# Entry
Amino acid sequence: MLAGEATAPTAERLMRSRFTAFAVGDSPYLLRSWHPSTRPGDLELDTDIRWTRLDILETEAGGPFDTSGFVAFEAFYRERGVQASLKERSRFVREVGIWSYVDGAPVG
# Structure
């Protein structure tokens, strides 16, 4: 999935593929899967961060026939030997059959 177009049948699957892209440092995929209305011009990933695990906490809509959805998650990482996590509720939209990440808000 990461090598080609950013396509996924659900918002959750796109969230999982985006986590993988962060884990392997695939910023082109992250930009392709980002909605044009909020996508940055470029994306430089922090090479000191090693993403290790993704837990999906909740989904709201985001199915194969929906046009929008939310995915709440906790992503675990290590940075300079310290383990930490990031919790976010991400918003996704599906246009012309393709899911895109729009934005996210911190959780908790």
Q: What stands out?
A: The beta strands are 49-61, 68-79, 82-95, 98-106. The domain at 11-106 is CATH 3.10.450.50 (Nuclear Transport Factor 2; Chain: A,). The chain has a mean pLDDT of 95. The radius of gyration is 13 Å.
